[in-house]
Amino acid sequence: MSHRILLLGAPGAGKGTQSAKLAEEYGIDHVTTGDALRANKDMETEYGTPRSFMEAGDLVPDPVVNEIVKTALEDADGFVLDGYPRNLEQAEYLSQITDLDAVVLLDVDDEVLVDRLTGRRVCEECGANYHVDFQPPEEAGVCDECGGELVQREDDTEETARERLEVFEENTEPVIEHFREEGVLVEVDGEATPDEVFDRIRGVVEA
């Protein structure tokens, strides 16, 4: 059976990790807004192509993002959606175009999220991700994969992390309420190990 899963959660909640696990477990597509836009950046919509906005450095408007996501979902035999919808308009659109089997909100305390975000380190050479506490490299500051230097990205500083969480809460609270009112939202404690969190999500999906 193909599943249609929406994963919601703040930056640092573990959506990417859990989405990848779900995609592998159920043989479904991992659909992210960024990947869908890159894969369809020349798709013609009545508002223009995504490429025209991306190359100008502008945010891609909701109607264009909606069409791209709709195409990605129609092409998928089951999916886990991560990073969309980002606002109430997108949430209402999503409810119109597909019936979701599970809407899971990864619930993680803000202080835990800040620790997760500020502890992330990225290899300058190959882009591999590490975390100083949860996934440290064998040698501090050095990538296991290629020996490159590990750096903290600008958007992983504490000030930026807290700003990102504020923006998320402002934009996404109406999305959470939308699915709660529809009776499909299930909150999962996202503060355990990735495997424990995955088992909880799988319990929701298979319920």
Automatic annotation (TrEMBL):
Residues 119-156 are annotated as: LID. Its main location: cytoplasm. Pathway: Purine metabolism; AMP biosynthesis via salvage pathway; AMP from ADP: step 1/1. CDD domains: ADK (cd01428). Keywords: ATP-binding, Cytoplasm, Kinase, Metal-binding, Nucleotide biosynthesis, Nucleotide-binding, Transferase, Zinc. InterPro entries: Adenyl_kin_sub, Adenylat/UMP-CMP_kin, Adenylat_kinase_CS, Adenylate_kinase_lid-dom, P-loop_NTPase. AMP binds at T33, R38, D58, L59, V60, G83, Y84, P85, R86, Q90, R153, R164. Zn(2+) binds at C123, C126, C143, C146. It is found in: Cytoplasm. It catalyses: AMP + ATP = 2 ADP. Residues 120-155 form the Adenylate kinase active site lid domain. One of its GO terms (biological process) is AMP salvage. Its EC number is 2.7.4.3. PROSITE patterns: ADENYLATE_KINASE (PS00113). ATP binds at G12, A13, G14, K15, G16, T17, R120, A192. One of its GO terms (cellular component) is cytoplasm. The keyword Zinc applies. GO terms for molecular function: AMP kinase activity; ATP binding; zinc ion binding. It holds the Pfam family ADK. Consists of three domains, a large central CORE domain and two small peripheral domains, NMPbind and LID, which undergo movements during catalysis. The LID domain closes over the site of phosphoryl transfer upon ATP binding. Assembling and dissambling the active center during each catalytic cycle provides an effective means to prevent ATP hydrolysis. Some bacteria have evolved a zinc-coordinating structure that stabilizes the LID domain. PANTHER family: NUCLEOTIDE KINASE. Belongs to the adenylate kinase family. Catalyzes the reversible transfer of the terminal phosphate group between ATP and AMP. Plays an important role in cellular energy homeostasis and in adenine nucleotide metabolism. This is Adenylate kinase. It comes from Halorubrum aquaticum.
